[in-house]
Amino acid sequence: MKVRNSIRSVKNQPGSQVVRRRGRIYVINKQNPRLKTRQG
């Protein structure tokens, strides 16, 4: 999982979902699991 300070480019990919868990923002992508990202 990558940790980035801006997830805008990741969330624009097809199949991405932005999820808030425990005060952090995650991007999960079932189609392309390489794009799993955390912010914060």
From TrEMBL:
Lineage, highest ranks first: Bacteria, Bacillati, Actinomycetota, Actinomycetes, Propionibacteriales
HAMAP family: Ribosomal_bL36 (MF_00251)
Species, as recorded: Nocardioides albidus
Gene encoding the protein: rpmJ
Any one of the GO CC terms: ribosome
This protein's UniProt keywords: Ribonucleoprotein, Ribosomal protein
Protein name as catalogued: Large ribosomal subunit protein bL36
Record-level GO BP terms: translation
Domain of life of the source: Bacteria
InterPro entries xrefs: Ribosomal_bL36, Ribosomal_bL36_sp, Ribosomal_L36_bact
Protein family: Belongs to the bacterial ribosomal protein bL36 family.
Molecular function terms, GO-annotated: structural constituent of ribosome
